Amino acid sequence: MKEKINLKNKVKILLYIYPIIMLFPSGYITTYVTIFTIFSFYYFYKSKIKIRLFLIDYLLLLFFLISFLSTLINYKSDYIILLKSLSDFRFALLFLAIRNLLIYKTVKVRILFLITLFCTIFLSFDIFLQHIFDRDIFGYKPSEGRYNGIFNDEAIAGSYLQKFFLISILGILFLNISFKNKIFFLLFF
Questions:
Q1: What does the alpha-carbon distance between residue 172 and residue 182 come to, in Å, rounded to a whole number?
Q2: pTM of whole model > 0.70?
C-alpha cells in the first residue's frame, strides 16, 4: 500500500513539474517525457487502473502508425530517421498517460494550473527585462533581434507562452483572491 501511495506521489510530482521542465533544453524534455510515461504506466499497472481509450486515442495512435509507415517506405536505409519516427510514439503515450491521470483524478488540476501560471509569469518577466535592459535574469542578450529570455539562442519563448497561456489564465481563476482582484490580475496578465 505504501509503495502505491509513494508511486502515486512521484507521478503527481512528475506531472506538476511539466511546465517547469518545458523551460529547459530539449534533451531534458525528452528524458522527462520518457521517465514520466514509464512511471505513469507503471502506476496504472500497479494500481490496477484500466487505461481508458476513446475514439480520439485510436485516431492519434493511427496517426503515429501512418507516420512511422510513411517513414519506413521513404527512408528504408536511414535507420536513425526510422528510430526517431518510432520514438515519436512516446508523445501518444504521454497524451494517454496525462489524460488518464486526469480522468481518474490522480492529480489536482489546480496545482498544475498555478505552476503553469508561475512559469509563464516568470518567462514573461524575463523577456520584459531582456527588452528593457538588453539582458535577461541570467545575462542572456537578445539573439538575432529576438527576445528569447531564458531560452538564450533558441527562439521558442513565444511558442512556450502561446502553448501555456490559456492554462495560465485558468490558473488565475484558481487563485484564492477576490473576484475583483482576479479581474485585475487577468487584465494585467
A1: 7
A2: yes
